[in-house]
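thought: fold this chain, then report.
action: predict
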Amino acid sequence: MSDPQARIAFTGVDAPRILVFTCRWTTFLKYCAADFARAFKLMGYNVRYIIEENDVQYLDQGFYWKELARFKPDLMFGISHGRPSMPFVPRELPFICYVQDKCGPLLTIKDLSDHIEPHDVFVCMADMFKTWLVDKGVPRSQCMILPVPADERMFYPLKDVSRET
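observation:
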């Protein structure tokens, strides 16, 4: 299959295992990643959500290696951090990076083409991020636009007032 999104369809895997990771740097990161993890669970996927337990904890490479061995994910999912942020992740493991801002290695590495795999996907919340990634060497076919998910228990649709008289 040449379409990276189709490859992420987990041919032959009934309930893919998704390792969602983020950090406590901002409240938005925490809630955005948690909303994605919940959405994956609602789709029937097995999800492990990794975040520091407190503001002074640091999750090092050893911690991630243990989690990879313990959980055995079918893919990694990170907010604004992808494979370039975690070069120790096995190259065979698909990586989805949801880009909500320009930070870390995605920002500092001039050309990303040698730092991603053909099965990696960059999901962008806005077209400006897709353009930015393509300019850094990410194939256009590996980038897509998708709005931020929202937990319906916290966010409710606005009332449609256009039909009221």
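thought: worth noting. Residues 15-151 form a domain with the Rossmann fold fold (CATH 3.40.50.2000).
final: tokens above.
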